[in-house]
Amino acid sequence: MKLLTAVSVLACVALAAAGKTGLEDFWTRYGGIKIMKSCLTEEGTKKWIDLLHRALTDCNPSSQGSSVPVDAVENADWDGILSEVAAKPDARTRRSIAYSAEKIRRIKDKLSQKIETFRCVMRAVKVTDANNAVSTDIVMAQYRKLNISSTLMDDIEQAVMQCHAFTDCLPLEGRKNLPVPADVIKTKAFLECEKYLRYWACLKNDLKVKVSKGAFDFKGLDGSLNYLKNDESRAAAILLAEEAVGPDNYNLYE
């Protein structure tokens, strides 16, 4: 179960910077794109990647002019933040805590710029609305453009709704030592949550298709999973068990 947009963002950034992030990381993200194409159609994946490329270009700080101060950054308790840094036991950290007003200003400006770029990209790829809040209507409108099964669509919609409800419960109010706006934290949490649940929705859909085609052979189970309601559930249970404790020689595939 690991938002279509989230995987697009991560995967495209990896493709653009594979040399910086390392080959292992690159292949992990490349695999994410392959999963997207298999589950959410190749055409739909291409449209979202193209949309992301345009968003990254349009939201590039160099094309946005000077950054706009972000309230959460400007109003944060920087004395408290720096005090927490100073309290860390790392000697190297202690030697670097003499922040001048000019250096703090540069930190604020850079952080504000990153926040505004993130907000811009999320609006452009249709995750958030004009107020930088995650919009389930906007997200689901993009999914409904895809040619996917009604069962998969229902599972994805459930994931979107559950993750949106989860982010609404995050305890973010009144935290002065957190110089990141609540909307950014909620959006990032939503992306991670939805990506995880969507991966599981895709796995469920893939199992449904394979089971319907007779791709699994359950004769070697000796009835040990008969308590589960259907073959989809049995296939999922075995795959989950392999993930948790390692492979088992059930000879599932004929």
TrEMBL record:
Signal peptide (UniProt feature, chain positions): 1-18
Superkingdom classification of source: Eukaryota
Keyword terms: Signal
Protein name: Uncharacterized protein LOC108679580
Lineage of the organism: Eukaryota, Metazoa, Ecdysozoa, Arthropoda, Crustacea
